[in-house]
Amino acid sequence: MGGRGRIGREVLRALSAKGARVRSLVRTPSPGSLLPHVQEVPGDLADRASLQRALSGVDAAFFVTPHHADEEALGRSFVEAALAAGVRRLVFASAYHADVRSSLGYALFAAAVGFVTHYGPKLRVEGLVRRSGASPVVLMPSNFFQNDELFLNELRAGRYPQPLGLRGANRVDCRDIGDAAARALLDLELASGAYPLVGPDPALTGPECADVWAQALGRAVAYDGDLDRWRALVADRMPSRERDDFGKTYGLFSRVRVAAKPAELARTTALLGRPPRAYRDYVAELAARLEPA
Ligand SMILES: NC(=O)c1ccc[n+]([C@@H]2O[C@H](COP(=O)([O-])OP(=O)(O)OC[C@H]3O[C@@H](n4cnc5c(N)ncnc54)[C@H](OP(=O)(O)O)[C@@H]3O)[C@@H](O)[C@H]2O)c1
Fold it and tell me: Does the pTM exceed 0.70?
């Protein structure tokens, strides 16, 4: 589920490359060409019957929850449909947070964090997945490198407007999330549990990201991390609910340093079977493809 999104398209790429037979649940199937071994099926998280049809006969299922007023109900519906279909493994891409292992610890953590932040619906869906009994794997990715791709015009003009703040946040490449999800879906021997997905730099500040871009483009790139200017900039690039949620996350980054611990990097590396990609390399690849302003 979510195969047209930033994470989901990387999950499809990784599964297709491994020759897995994949059903991709989409709201509107496309007439265009698809990846090898991928079949699109129509469905909507809000339409339970469509989920049941899409999940029938499926061994392992992957899903995300959209930024939506009904995020929790939509996620719950997917979990229930997957369990009713008898999937052997359920994989959910949640969000980066403390790696809490015990059931009681997680319940307390989710209640407390859900009370003070906007992450409540996602953490409650994650709780359902953890308790599901379907050999669950929860992926906990940090801030995506690919969020920068919303701002290619600004980057060409020498401005980095992603309000990552001055304290720093861990960031990860969506291709690594796709590779990790594919492993979880195909390797049923992989221990079920929650896996942080982090990049190799413990934390990157807004000015540090701007510097990486400046070096890759070979010209000045100034950090412009004003949250209100960011909100205005993304007004027509992001649905309003997603914009509100992201704005709150960036507000959090301005107050708290969100750095990955060495043990989290080790767990990501073990899951991938290699170190995760570095921000500097991602930016260099993307900058090489960017036309000048
Ligand atoms: N961006 C970050 O830095 C970050 C970091 C950590 C976690 N996350 C979380 O990662 C998750 C996925 O993010 P993403 O960037 O991959 O999302 P995305 O690019 O917005 O993609 C969401 C996907 O879900 C599909 N979808 C939405 N509503 C649906 C519905 N009712 N029924 C069926 N499909 C539906 C969309 O399909 P359509 O193509 O039809 O719209 C799209 O394919 C989100 O929960 C986000 O909070 C994001």
Answer: yes
151 close to 162: Cβ distance less than 8 angstroms: yes
Q: Which of 1, 10, 23, 27 to mutate to test the pocket of ligand 1 (most atoms within 8 A of CB)?
A: 27
Quickly tell me which residue has 């070979």 as its tokens: 218
Six-digit token string for 232: 């205005």
* Ligand 1 pocket, residue 21 CB under 6 Å: no
pLDDT in tens, the chain (293 residues): 999 999 999 999 999 999 999 999 999 988 777 899 999 999 999 999 999 999 999 999 999 999 999 999 999 999 999 999 999 999 999 999 999 999 999 999 999 999 889 999 999 999 999 999 999 999 999 999 999 999 999 999 999 999 999 999 999 999 999 999 999 999 999 999 999 999 999 999 999 999 999 999 999 999 999 999 999 999 999 999 999 999 999 999 999 999 999 999 999 999 999 999 999 999 999 999 987 66
Q: Alpha-carbon distance 274 to 97, whole Å?
A: 22
What is the Cα 45 distance to its own chain's centre?
A: 18
Please choose from 7, 78, 172 the residue to mutate so as to test ligand 1's pocket, defined by most ligand atoms within 8 A of CB: 7
Q: Which domains does the chain carry?
A: 6-143+173-199+261-276 (3.40.50.720)
